[in-house]
Amino acid sequence: MRNTAKITTAVLAAGALTLGLSACGSDKDSGSDASAPLKVAATPTPQGEILTYIKDNLAKKAGLELEVKEFTDYVTPNTAVQQGEVDANYFQHQPYLDDFNKKNGTDIVAVPNATVHLEPLGVYSQGVKKLTDLKKGATVALPNDTTNEARALKLLEANGLIELKAGVGYEATPKDVASNPKNLQFKELEAAQLPRSLSDVDAAVINGNYALEADLSPAENALVAESPKDNPYGNFLAVKKGNEDDPRVEKLAKLLTSPEVKKFIEDKYDGAVVAAF
Fold first, then answer.
1. Does the pLDDT value for residue 212 go beyond 50?
2. In a domain? residue 5
3. Hey, which residues does 206 pair with through a beta bridge?
4. Does 48 score more than 90 pLDDT?
5. Whether residues 148 and 189 fall in one domain
6. Considering the domain boundaries, does residue 171 fall inside one?
7. Cα angle 54-254-7, degrees, rounded to a multiple of 5
8. Which of 14, 28, 215, 251 has the smallest number of CB atoms closer than 10 Å to its CB?
9. Taking 70 as the threshold, does the pLDDT of residue 231 lie above it?
10. Mind telling me which GO cellular component terms the entry cites (predicted)?
11. Ramachandran bin of 225, using left for φ above 0, alpha for ψ from -120 to 50, beta for the remaining angles
12. Residue 94 covered by a domain
């Protein structure tokens, strides 16, 4: 899942549109015909690429006909599921879905055992080779959207640079820093701008997808990176509530978490995308 700054704006803008979702096709039972193609909405990278790999290499053997519909925004994949225009989507993590359902009155749920990948945040620097080398007063750039900024701060906390106030959740900001021994200065930027900021700051916390686009490898270039273990930001397969047991959905869930897909992710994304299973 990418650039949640765009996501939040899009969700708010879509509020009026989604008020009428229940009257606009929510009665469709897209999972009623087990022989029909499974239509899945996804963002292009890496979700669409992963689904296309499954379609081209694994689906036929599993007895699944798969249709991949790509979207470049983060609202349409959910509204399409809610309205029954597609059967499932694959593009989001749980904190985003919880926020979307709350704001839009939708009832989309994660498919059990179908968390596929994490796009890990990493700390990058052109000036130091390890976090402990950051000097007092160093400037660290952070993504400025709610979800990713909290993730970035939690990553810094997990690696001993700061401490956050007790009980701070997924909306932490620099104002929630309780201890900052190095007196780090935080520069908040749009997530897409972070790779370009590296020459102007001492370090930057960058999303995996933007690192990949900037030819930065989380595995080779990041000073530290998020772990997929017990990480709430793993991207998963999602459906409208009640369709979790659709046999086609169950088949796709198994394929998405198969050894073949894990190897595809490892080979293609060089650590910018990490299998979460």
1. yes
2. no
3. 122
4. yes
5. yes
6. yes
7. 70
8. 215
9. yes
10. membrane
11. beta
12. yes
Both tokens of 184, joined, read 């780090």
Helical residues (DSSP H) of the chain, grouped into ranges: 4-13, 15-18, 49-57, 76-83, 94-104, 146-158, 208-213, 247-256, 259-269
User: How many Cβ atoms from other residues are within 10 Å of residue 268's Cβ?
Assistant: 14
Q: How far is CA 96 from CA 99, 102, 146, 235, in A?
A: 5, 10, 10, 10
pTM tops 0.85: no
Taking residue 158's Cβ as centre, other Cβ atoms within 10 Å add up to 12
User: Mean pLDDT, the chain, as a whole number?
Assistant: 88
Q: Any idea which of 125-129, 227-231, 256-260, 269-273 has the lowest mean pLDDT?
A: 227-231
CATH number at residue 209: 3.40.190.10
- Per-residue 3-state assignment (H helix, E strand, C coil) for 136-204: CCCEEEEECCHHHHHHHHHHHHHCCCCEECCCCCCCCCHHHEEECCCCCEEEEECHHHCHHHCCCCCEE
Judged by DSSP in three states, 108 sits in strand
Q: What pLDDT is stored for residue 2 in this prediction?
A: 54
Query: Does 27 reside within a domain?
Result: no
What letter represents residue 101's amino acid? N
To the nearest 10°, the Cα dihedral for 103, 109, 115, 117?
Answer: -30
Tell me: do 115 and 129 sit in the same domain.
Answer: no
Give residue 247's domain range.
Answer: 38-120+232-275
Contacts of 232 (CB under 8 A, 6+ apart): 93, 94, 95, 170
C-alpha closest to that of 141 among 186, 181, 180: 186
